[in-house]
Design goal:
With 191 residues, this protein is mostly beta strands. 0% of the residues lie in helices and 47% in strands. The chain is built from no helices and 14 strands.
Length: 191
Amino acid sequence: AIDAPAAAGSNTLVLPADNGSNGEYLQTNGSGTLDWAAVAGGDTNTPGFQVYKSGNCAVNHATHGEIVIDTELWDSASAYNTSTGRFTPQTAGTYFIYFECYPAMSSDQVNFIGQIRKNGSDAYNTGYALTQFVAKTGEAVPAHFCSGIFSLNGSSDYVSPWTYIWNYTSSSNNRNTQNNYFGGFRLGAAF
């Protein structure tokens, strides 16, 4: 039953022609017409992805290099390309992106950098995250983790992991990274 308002006057509501679907609610257009509407679930942090590479990624001396991490744990919108190592979401928004790698060094003295770049650029105003570590000879090199907040346009913008090494001990010693993973998810609307 629907009760009439206690105050005098007229209030006409036009009901929908059917019973609606499970989970829907009655919504008014503000002029008395009612219709069924689905409950909005809010932002679900998608699209998102996480990838890993259990093997090594080559890192060449004195060279910034985009690395390809090629095994998907999950990719909610098929936006990660395992051939290029790039995440190109087709939903515009603000994204939290993270990258971790472990440089496999011997006893060399090195400067190692792990990066996340937007559209291949290391310019801070385009979106960029960085971790850096200088290891002295015989010193343990920790895992490198970096993360950042990136605004992506939902069409052509992409993010990808990059590395750099400067080997002070021997410039002919190229190295690898191990236990690499890269991932991210949408936080909300673009900023």
